[in-house]
Amino acid sequence: MPVIVPLQLEGRLVRIRDWRAGDLPIYREWLRPHHEWHDWDGPYFPVPDDAEADNLVRSLGVLLNQPRTAAPPRRAVVADRGTDSLIGVVSWYYECEVSDWRRVGITVFDPGLRGRGVGLEALTLWAAHLFSSTGIRRLDFATWSGNAAMCRVGEKAGWREEARFRDAREVRGEVYDAVVFGVTRGEWERTAPTRSGVSP
Predict the structure, then answer these.
(1) Tens-digit pLDDT profile for residues 61-106
(2) pTM tops 0.90, yes or no
(3) I need a labelling partner for 188 at 20 to 30 A (CA). Which of 33, 41, 51, 137 fits?
């Protein structure tokens, strides 16, 4: 039986790791609707109500008691490198399972961390892990044109703007474009030497 190594991806600012029981109450607090990150991360979707948030945290708690598999987890913790405390999450899901087309998500909860490179490093670590641990040919993420910070993350990471669906999202009464940034395995591998401190 293969040995399953716990997930722990180290960057300069953050680490990406498996969930722990102590993360759950912190995560539950960040899910509360008054936190600012809800205004930026998919604000065209409804904020989870208390019952939905409780169910999400409960399901994570159940997963803590299940054995890890060799496959990358669908959702992992972004932790502060110094304190190891939860500051965000990364995730992936199938846009098309037949072709192994995966879309990633990144959320950094604390607005005080915006603009410090935390999101960029989390994206780079997560993409490096997914490319190295699977045979995927590409990754992408979706955002909206009003989230300038996330668009900058995609640009700084060297991912290409692959799609722009004009006037596709409405946020607080204003209309914005939906935007998708993507990277292929070939592009990722060619740019690996420029990503200091992060293995491809």
Answers:
(1) 998 888 878 889 999 999 999 999 999 999 999 999 999 999 999 9
(2) yes
(3) 41
Tell me how long the chain is: 200
pLDDT tens-digit readout, 146-185: 999 999 999 999 999 999 999 999 999 999 999 999 999 9
Segments making up each domain of the chain, as ranges? 8-194
* Short-list 186, 169, 123, CA closest to 150: 123
CA angle 23, 10, 108 (to 5 degrees): 50
> Tokens 């914005």 — which residue?
176
Tell the residue number behind the tokens 């936190």, with chain if given.
35
Q: For 102, what's the count of Cα atoms within 13 Å in the CB-facing half-sphere?
A: 23
**Which CATH number does the domain 8-194 belong to among 3.10.560.10, 3.40.630.30, 3.40.50.2300, 3.40.30.10?**
3.40.630.30
Using CA atoms, how far apart are residues 58 and 40, in angstroms rounded to an integer? 25
Quote the CA–CA distance of 2 and 19 in Å, as a whole number: 21
